[in-house]
Amino acid sequence: MTHIRGLYGGVLSDLAIGPKGIQGNAGRCSYSLDRKADEYTGFSACGGLQHPADVHLPKGLASKPGAEQAALIAVLLGR
Description:
With 79 residues, the protein is an alpha+beta fold. 15% of the residues lie in helices and 54% in strands. It has a six-stranded antiparallel sheet with strand order 1-2-3-4-5-6, with helices on one face. A hairpin with a 2-residue loop joins strand 4 and strand 5 (39-46). The longest helix is centred in the C-terminal third of the chain and has 12 residues, at 66-77. The model has no long low-confidence stretch (mean pLDDT 86).
């Protein structure tokens, strides 16, 4: 499991990414995503509006060091 805590976009963030899903917030957006095969599906909310969301992480991401994984995931979710 990868756990990201810190400031993102000036907002305290706390995000957990693991084999069961992605839960928490990154910046002003929150995520509640369950893992299904090679993707994470569920909902994201930014500014209070909840929307369906799908996240596909690159296959080679798991082989990267933890800090690099955290940085790449934060960039992907912050877009």
